[in-house]
Amino acid sequence: MTRLPLLVRLAWRNLWRHPLRTSLILFAFVLGVWSIVVLAAYGRGAMEQQIEQSIRNLTAHIQIHAPGYRDDPVIDHRLPPPGPSLRAVLAEPQVSAWAARVRVPAVVASERESAGVTLIGIEPARERGLSFIAEAVHDGRYLESDDDPGLLLGRKLAERLETGLGRRVVVMSQDVHNQIADRGFRVVGIFDGSPEAMETGYLFVGRATLQQMLKLGDDVSEIAIMTQARKLPADLVGRFRQATPENDVQSWTALEPLLELTEELSDRLLMIWSLVIFTAMSFGLVNTLLMAVFERIREFGLFQALGMPPRLILGMVLVESVILLLLALVVGNLLAGATLWSLKGGIDLSAFAEGMEMFGYSPIIYPMLTTADFVTANALVFTLGVLACLYPAWRAARYVPVEAITRI
Description:
Layout: H1 4-15, H2 19-59, E1 62-65, H3 84-90, E2 95-109, E3 114-122, H4 124-127, H5 133-136, E4 137-140, E5 150-154, H6 155-161, E6 168-174, E7 180-191, H7 196-201, E8 202-206, H8 207-214, E9 222-227, H9 236-243, E10 248-251, H10 252-255, H11 257-295, H12 297-305, H13 310-342, E11 347-348, H14 353-358, E12 364-365, H15 371-388, H16 390-397, H17 401-406
Parallel strand pairs: 3-8, 5-7
Antiparallel strand pairs: 1-9, 1-10, 2-3, 2-6, 2-9, 4-7, 5-8, 6-7, 11-12
């Protein structure tokens, strides 16, 4: 440890014997670190937006259904309103919002066209902060109460039905007596949704209005629950299951298994990308250090002849590598931070909006760099960089002093 300052001074001077060569390899490392951090932030931001969008697209963090509803979502599989034990769990601080919904298959018909849809009766006040519906209404108005007689229609579905704001449509479904139930609704709001299937596949009406139409009484199809964080406490779902053991309680990971798999795959792809970038950088680093070692063979032989042990020569070359890596990490992270700050308003990919929405991605991506991603990227580059430098350092330390001094 007492010789470390000397090794650092020698390593720093050796690095800048050839400033152009050192600058080029430093530039390559800075570019690699910058790309790893920025791409990690882009990928994380896109993935988080997709997950949050899916959760707000009626999934929520937890859902409660009657047994069999998820396999056959018909009116026969319905729930009573929440009882005292369930309401006690719903009132816990970890629950930020919840709402009961009626969700049934239906047919909507205008004077020109008809389409199969999912008809959902909602509590307008409770849906705020729970789902996308309130913020998505851009033409007309949002539903005002549970017994609002109006209907919210998706923009694409309105175009398909050749109808619009203020027009009347007829909605047909099946009531609790297995009879056809139909009702005329006036379109009071047009909403936009992403992906497009949200606009073409769903209608929203007041929950009480739909219950009356289907003769449901107070029964509902599902209870959707939003918690304080997407990473649910391990025991929260269990407490809901204890409060309503006769019903089916599932978290969003069980309701959207493909989305959870996509998140895991995204993490793996980011790691693979980091390894690919680092592999390309490591070739340049090893080559640069080997060139420096071959040019200084006589110098290493002289050091050993004067009494410097091989381990200090190995340490000196490793210190050179560490200095180079630290410089690259500092500059690369600063550039990445500046880049992400400049993109805090989002990356506008509107030119590819239609294709992105097909896969559930927003046309504007907001990069998001987590502490875990930042630490992982930097630790990966530094650790593998030091490992890649062991071979040049070992080569420098294994020369025999007499042979090294006489080398021309």
